[in-house]
Design brief:
The chain is an all-alpha fold and 239 residues long. It has a domain of 117 residues. 69% of the residues lie in helices and 0% in strands. It is built from nine helices and no strands. The protein is rod-shaped and about 165 Å long.
Amino acid sequence: MSAGCEGAHSLPTNDSRRCSSGSSDHYNESVETIKTEYNIDEPVQSDLTVAVPVKEQDLPFVKGSIIWLTVENMEVLKRLPQNPHFRPLYDCKEDFREGFAIGKLVNFANLVERISKACFYSPKSLLARYLEYLAVFEEFGFDVEPIREKLNTMISIKVKFERAQYTCRDIESQIMERNLEKSTINEELEEADKKIWELLFERKKKEAEIISLQTHIGAIKHILEATQKEFEKVANLIF
């Protein structure tokens, strides 16, 4: 079985083995589950053949399952009407094509729901993965461009945020570095201030010693002058 068939039934992350195990009966049994999950009221129909927006001859299968009305009334598909061609299903066994197509619609609706619930802190890698999924749906004729546009915008915003966040962290790192340098300078200033006070104290001490010595030398000079005068006085008495 070809790769186109394997991707027809499930999201790109699902096990490809589901392609060979699905059937229309399986999807018929899932009607109530889908209706309950998506709160869908099933329209009244006159027979099992469903009127659809896609021309029957354009599809690789005949729409005959009652599930079509239920699936096509999902709220997501009402907001984003789709008209897929399902051409890759030509590579699948004919009996399985309709079931795979229904599964593809449900998976598309699930993907759109996930994207709509993405929050600001959703990983950028997750949004990029959603873009890859959209490419797969596009191969089946889904109109994914509006969603892709929004996803690209979301990713662009995330990139802008990450750049700003990186710049912010870089600046915070620089601020921390400057604060450490400032702390080192403050410590050096404290040491310098301490040294200055020590030097000022030593200067005052030396000034006091100088004053004391100057006083002492003044007294000595006075004695010198007095002794000189006394000597001259005694010498003059001889005559």
